[in-house]
Amino acid sequence: MKKTKTIFEDGNHKWVAIVRDPDKPNYLIDTNEYLVTHGSQGMLLDPGGAEVFPAVFSALSSEFDPSALSAIFASHQDPDVCSSLALWLEFNPQMRCYVSWLWAGFIPHFGGSAETFVAMPDEGVDISLDGLMLKAVPAHYLHSSGNFHLYDKVAKVLFSGDVGAALLPHGEDGLFVENFDKHIRHAEGFHRRWMGSNEAKRRWCERVSQMDIGMLCPQHGAIYQGADVQRFINWFDGLQVGISGG
Amino acid sequence: MTMTTALSTRPTKAQQAGVDLLRIVRINEEIKSVVGVAFKINIMALNAIFLAKRAGTAARGFGVLSNELRVFSQDLRDGMSALTGLIHGCVTEVSVVLQDIRHTALLRRAVELSPVACGRDVLAAREVENDRHAERLARLRKQLRGALDDAFRMVELGGVLAKSAKIEAAYGQSFALPLSQVSGEFDGVVEEIRSSLEALRRSAFFTGN
């Protein structure tokens, strides 16, 4: 079963990271899921693949009533991001799924009906979670051509999807980045290959540098916090991406 | 010891559904070939009618039979078209059942792992839905079996007509040889369809073995 870790809490406003399943088969890439709750509602960010659904569901249900999940935020269209969608919808068929307009016709192949999907325009959108305003931040081509991150300015948390992701070796899989220089080695290859556009990367770095971010939470690997957030943005800004070995 | 082995070798629902899907796909392929042959019969029956007309009074009996064979070939095509529809329905339902099984297994595992009693009602609702799909598949399976039996009976009648045509061909005087050839080909094709349908009726998809 996955573990839950509350990374932000202020009254009924919470961010919970759902991470590190010791029973996960090695052939599946490890993923982090994040639950944002405010008031009586919850939103699950990148809920994960169908194969990890039991582990994510059981961990989440220890923190929150799954039938009270009002929305899912899918940063992009990958199977490890949202192929579990149909299973989550079993618990609340009225649940909404926020996706880039680009993928609004593709992700329904994982499940859902015409009413399920909220197609987000390229410039992003404000999403209300029981009165808490969350901002879908454009991150197109990082890596997907229709890609969004989610910013909570109250909690100062940016969910950054695949940006900031690291493929951590066994034994170096702490939830938070502790030694940036050591950690970033596990992120470098991933970013060089998966991120397709230097121009898009530049724009993203400029955009997020202007935000007040206390924690940058990727879908894989460890969470950057404090000074490591800006350290990561600077590192990413200087990295040449869109390069394959072949 | 024997019991343990028997239990461990019993296929799971998912394995069974997977095997069912393969079987129904094979049945579909067989039916497609039978439909092709049934179309050939229609052309053969037309040729037989023309031949009988040319032979005139000497082939009057053959002419009556070739008309009947033409009607039979049309009925056979209709029967095959109904079978094709049922097969497509079965393929869809088996696929739905396969999806249900995976879906339910993941839900069940999630509910079992959950430290709080959560999701049992959702799992129960899912199982009701699965039963509904399984019943629909059972109904379609029964209808398909019935349609195969009907087609088989129809083909047996076609076989009788073809054999009678062979006998009538012998009275065709100077046309006896070509009439005999046509009726012989007819008989061969009907026999081919009959064997195919007989094999399909014995498919483990219906017997469950």
Key words describing this protein structure:
heterodimer; A: 246 residues; alpha/beta; Metallo-beta-lactamase, Chain A; 24% helix; 26% strand; B: 209 residues; mainly alpha; Substrate Binding Domain Of Dnak, Chain:A, Domain 2; 89% helix
Task: Summarize the structure in words.
The complex is a heterodimer of chains A (246) and B (209). With 246 residues, chain A is an alpha/beta fold. Chain A has one domain: Metallo-beta-lactamase, Chain A (4-Layer Sandwich), CATH 3.60.15. Chain A has six helices and 13 strands. Chain A has a seven-stranded mixed sheet with strand order 1-2-3-4-5-6-7, with helices on one face. Chain A is globular, with a radius of gyration of 17 Å. Chain B has six helices and no strands. The chains are: A alpha/beta (246), B mainly alpha (209). Chains A and B meet through helix 1 and helix 3 of A and helix 3 and helix 4 of B.
The shape of chain B is rod-shaped
Spans of at least 5 consecutive residues with low confidence of chain A: none
CATH architecture of chain B: Up-down Bundle
Estimate what percentage of residues of chain A fall within beta strands.
Answer: 25-35%
CATH topology of chain B: Substrate Binding Domain Of Dnak, Chain:A, Domain 2
Short description:
The complex is a heterodimer of chains A (246) and B (209). Chain A is an alpha/beta fold and 246 residues long. Chain A is built from six helices and 13 strands.
Topology:
The complex is a heterodimer of chains A (246) and B (209).
Chain A: E1 3-10, E2 13-19, E3 33-38, E4 41-45, H1 53-61, E5 69-73, H2 79-82, H3 85-91, E6 96-100, E7 117-120, E8 125-129, E9 132-138, E10 148-152, E11 157-159, H4 180-194, H5 198-209, E12 215-217, E13 224-225, H6 227-238
Parallel strand pairs in A: 4-5, 5-6, 6-7, 11-12
Antiparallel strand pairs in A: 1-2, 2-3, 3-4, 8-9, 9-10, 10-11, 12-13
Chain B: H1 2-9, H2 13-55, H3 60-113, H4 120-169, H5 176-201, H6 204-207
Helix pairs in contact in B: 2-3, 2-5, 3-4, 4-5
